[in-house]
Amino acid sequence: MARKYEVKYIKLLLDELGKTTGYSIDHFGFGRMSDEIFEKLNVSISAKYIYYSLHNAVKKATNENDLLNLSPNKVDDLAKFLEYENFDAFIRAFESPIHSILLSLVGDYYSYVRKNTERGILLQSPVQINVLNNKVIFKLTGPRWKYEGEMRYQDGCLFCLMQAESAKTFHHVYKIGKSESPQVLMGVFSGVSSANDPIGGRCVLIRKGIIPEGISPLKMTIEELVSSSDDNLKKLGNYFKNYADNNLKINTASGFDIDDL
Questions:
Q1: Which domain of life is it from (predicted)?
Q2: Range of 191's domain?
Q3: Number of domains in the chain
Q4: How far apart are CA 244 and CA 247, in angstroms?
Q5: pTM of the full structure
Q6: 137 and 105, same structural domain?
Q7: Which of 54, 71, 95 is at the close of a domain?
Q8: For residues 139 and 128, is the Cβ–Cβ distance under 8 A?
């Protein structure tokens, strides 16, 4: 069943196809786009369809708010080629632009938290921050699970509720103020331990390249970091040095009454 689309949005879609592929907005360019769409998505959208049903229809329209009857499957596939979930997500990306502070976060990082034990061990996990469907997505690869969540900016802080396929979740909050492209972010995390107890503490996010490469998760002792010849490792170790400053946990809950305190 056909769906009605405003001319201005179809024109925007065609313009973005041209920018993304580098091909001209004409029959030749649409032929090249058609080939790339098939190669990437394994769906067939002919150059003839793009030229006559989209391009020519836009040119003939007398008003940008005029409506075109088009196949939603084909229009959604064109948006998917541009890395959007569907056409509606494509439009949202242009009507609700991402905050510049969030966009400035895109890149590769390491996340650091102190293991929730008296023994001084620092956990390092690689993090990727990128844009997907007009959202800034935080992806953390832990020793056991991969976590993913959308980042939000409010009141000078970054918020991310991330979840693994196992449904295990953690919440991170980082202070950023009005800074863009920060190298280091300090924050706090909260979640549930392997023993199913609430835990929390400090977390640090550092852009890749500031901390030496090749350090393995679960093998970074605070003692080694503090005595390191590398100034940045030493600063990292000192920040996480004291257990009481970095980790929170509750008393053992047995009766769930006032005597547990």
A1: Bacteria
A2: 101-250
A3: 2
A4: 6
A5: 0.69
A6: yes
A7: 95
A8: yes
| DSSP per-residue string spanning the chain | --EEEEHHHHHHHHHHHHHHH---SSHHHHHHHHHHHHHHH-----HHIIIIIIIIHHHH-SSTT-EEEE-HHHHHHHHHHTT-SSHHHHHHHHHSPPPHHHHTT-EEEEEEEE-SSSS-EEEEEEEEEEEETTEEEEEEE-SS-EEEEEEEEETTEEEEEEEETT--EEEEEEE-TT-SS-SEEEEEEEEE-TTS-EEEEEEEEEETTSSPS-PPTT-EEHHHHHT-SSHHHHHHHHHT--HHHHEEEPPP-SSSSGGG-
d(CA 38, CA 13): 17
Cα separation, 33 vs 147, in Å, equals 34
Q: For residue range 247-260, list pLDDT tens digits in order.
A: 888 888 888 888 88
Which amino acid is present at 198? Answer: P
Q: Read off the tokens for 63.
A: 């008003």
Write down which residue in 75, 95, 115 finishes a domain: 95
In a domain, 80, yes or no: yes
Q: Same domain, yes or no, for 46 and 166? A: no
- Among residues 14, 12, 7, 20, which one has the least CA distance to residue 45? 14
As a whole number of angstroms, the distance between CA 71 and CA 73 comes to 5
Q: What span, in angstroms and rounded, lies between the C-alpha atoms of 245 and 76?
A: 50
Q: Could you give the maximum distance between any two Cα atoms of the chain, in Å? A: 78
Query: Which pLDDT tens digit goes with each residue over 69-87?
Result: 899 899 999 999 998 889 9
